[in-house]
Amino acid sequence: MCGAGNNPITREGWCGRGTITPEMSFDNVIGQEWPKEALKRALKTGRLAHAILLHGPEGIGKRALALELAKAVNCTGSEADPCDTCRACRRISAGLFPDLKVLFPVPAGLSSEKETSLVQQITGDSYREIEFGRNVGIPIERVRDLQRYAAYHPYEGRRKVSIILEADQMRPEAANALLKTLEEPPHYLLLVLTARNPDALLPTILSRCQLLRLRSLTAAEIEEALIKREGLEPKKARLIARVSDGSLSKAQRLLGEDIDEYRDKAYEFLKIALQGDDLARVNFIEDITGPGQNRLVERLLNTLLLWMRDILLWQEGHQNEVVNFDRPDQIKEMAQAFNIRSIEETTKIIQNCLEMMSRNVNAQLILFWLVGRLQSTEV
């Protein structure tokens, strides 16, 4: 009889039967070639770690890679990669696989029906942003649920998998409870954690996980994904990809927003701040800082940062890298109003404005302060 504790776990089963682990492509994961290759090698050699931490910025594929890995160790329908058609793959995608448990930050008193709905959203579209709510975390009760779940052998699949999303939001008592499972994991259990800030996790948790860092996506990767997944026409996909900061989930959020409006407002603001009269400045600021318009002001400030980046790239001869590629005349015009030093100073000033917005400083006061600083900045 094979001893599970003495054999590396392969995709063929946790007792080591079958030495061939199929090559896998993780086609549902956009980019991230190095982490995917690392997991392929681990699966092929039967040396997949019992706990893996996928970390990096939001919207880059951490959840997607975790779910594909859950499929990979349980797929029964393909010799090449997770097939997405066998019972295990389909049930994982639907959030109904009995040997997959997903933990995530939850508000107090979340009903089981709402939790099930969230799990299905999480697994159904692995790049779509999920709103967990404010001031939430992963409580110790969820980790104890995980420990009870892990106490039993797989019911249907080859391995039990638990995915802990936003593990850096675990409450201290939950993190300490998880340590016991990490120190003495059942041989059939695979733990996959995701985090934006791994430094927020206990060092003892980090030391018991294999760490895989995921990078921000390139604009080209996001552009291709938007065309294929969302059916966008190439020009719009290219624009959204360039303003999404390497995050596909941010790009998806932008689909419902009027990017041209923000760009128009940002360009108009720069012109009025630098060349307009006091009345024009007052009218503009009062117009965009009415009740409930803080979101517009935040988008304006973020778009101003993109304009400053474009102006710098234009001055340094990298015109093909600008975000506002369809507005070369406006970039060229603004580039004549700034030098390198003033671009750097203005960028810092705008970043300070965003920081003040995060502290709920009055938006109108922030914009008037910004205008004053722009006028006093040497150009």
Question: How would you portray this structure in words?
Answer:
The longest helix is centred in the last third of the chain and has 22 residues, at 294-315. The chain has helices spanning 33-45, 62-72, 87-93, 112-124, 140-150, 172-183, 203-206, 219-230, 234-242, 248-254, 259-275, 278-288, 294-315, 328-335, 340-358, 363-376; strands spanning 51-55, 100-103, 160-164, 189-195, 210-213. It folds into two domains: 25-215, Rossmann fold (3-Layer(aba) Sandwich), CATH 3.40.50.300; 257-376, Up-down Bundle (Zinc Finger, Delta Prime, domain 3), CATH 1.20.272. It starts with 32 loop residues before the first helix and ends with a helix. By secondary structure, the protein is of the alpha/beta class. α2 (62-72) runs antiparallel to α3 (87-93), α8 crosses α9 (234-242) and α12 runs antiparallel to α16. It is 50% helix and 7% strand. The relative contact order is 0.10.
| N-to-C span | 78 Å
Structural class: alpha/beta
What can be said about the biggest beta sheet?
A: 5 strands, parallel
Mean of residue pLDDT? Answer: 86
The CATH topology of the largest domain corresponds to: Rossmann fold
Strand content: 5-15%
Helix tally equals: 16
| The CATH H-level homologous superfamily of the largest domain | P-loop containing nucleotide triphosphate hydrolases
Q: Tell me, what is the CATH class of the largest domain?
A: Alpha Beta
Contiguous low-pLDDT stretches (5 residues minimum) are: 1-24
The overall strand count is 5
Task: Provide the gyration radius in Å.
Answer: 25 Å
Order of helices and strands: HEHHEHHEHEHEHHHHHHHHH
Named at the architecture level, the CATH assignment of the largest domain is 3-Layer(aba) Sandwich
Shape: elongated
Strand order of the largest sheet: 2-3-4-1-5
Whole-number tally of structural domains: 2
Helix content: 40-55%
